[in-house]
Amino acid sequence: CFTTGRGSCFGSYPSPTIKLASNSPMARRMAGDMDIDCGPVIDGTRTLDEMGDEIFGHILSIASGEQSRSEAQGIGAEEFAPWPIGVTG
Questions:
Q1: Would you list the domain boundaries of the chain?
Q2: Bridge-partner residues for 2, per DSSP?
């Protein structure tokens, strides 16, 4: 898992990258790039245990063959990929 507070479209092969958005506004802004919105823990609508269960379930799904967002977009196939301007703004 890769936690991000500012947003990143980082991906890595051969190991899938699961991106955890630390806040809901960023998760909405980067919905195509983030795998899980962890913001509900901050706003009090989900407990840390509930979010942990969701993350664990997502890890199991990815390990069972479901593609992460970065995999679905083909991100991470290059060994070196310089950051495009504006991704983490």
A1: 2-70
A2: 19
